[in-house]
Amino acid sequence: MLLPVVLPPLLFVHLLFLLLISISSSCYKSDNPSYYQHRVDTVSEKRSWNTETHSTASFASVTMSSDDKKKKNGYYYWHDHEKQRAAVGDVAALPTPLVVATDTAAAAAAAAADRVLATRKFSWDDGSKRVTVYLDTSYGGVGGEVVEELQDDSVAVDFTFCSVDVRYVGQRRDGARAAVRRQFKVPYLYGDIDVEQSTFVIKPNKTDGAKKEIVVKMVKREARPWSELHGKERTEEVKKDEGGSEEDEQELGK
């Protein structure tokens, strides 16, 4: 059997007050649409703030990513990376330049102008006071005709106390018409020579007048025979004064 619940007067009054407040609030919301608009605006502001925050973070992330790319593509980063690749052999070889075209005629002429040929056709004669060298400058063809002619103004001869150097140019008579540079050089003669008295001359060949030869005459310092033309390497000795006395020579010997 249910017994009636008897509430105290103070609790009853409190519950009645809460009920009235709830009813009045419901009536206010239904009668005032601006309340709901305020709620919508508040939610929109929160969403907008969240969107701006997300966009700012995304922009910062993109900026950082772009900076990283710039750093990796920078000059110093790339060259440091090249060193690392070179250490493991991961660097492509440099391209090899190829010759597209060359002027063969000009190249051949330049090579011929720079080339110096040795004169091998010579003879020599040993005299009591001088040594004579005969250089044959006229090179013949198959039929014996002269195909290389000496240019007289090109002959140059240099003497030192122990050497002789002869240089000249021969003009080809064949289709090439090229200038041939030749040289006859003995760096160390068998004996010493007198530079001031040594000379050379150009004259026709003894056996064939159509050919020319260079005759080099070298005066000996000492009247002794030469067994060969080439000698040993040496340096020039200091000569005594011709007017010195025997006592001076003895002092020099000491």
Automatic annotation (TrEMBL):
This protein's UniProt keywords: Signal
One GO CC term on file: nucleus
Secretion signal span: 1-26
Region Disordered, annotated ranges: 226-254
UniProt xrefs under InterPro entries: Calcyclin-binding_UBL-bridge, CS_dom, HSP20-like_chaperone
Domain CS: 117-230
Compositionally skewed regions (Basic and acidic residues) per UniProt: 226-243
Keyword Signal tagged: yes
Biased segments, Acidic residues type: 244-254
Protein name per UniProt: ACD-like protein
Source organism of the structure: Strigomonas culicis
Source organism phylogeny: Eukaryota, Discoba, Euglenozoa, Kinetoplastea, Metakinetoplastina
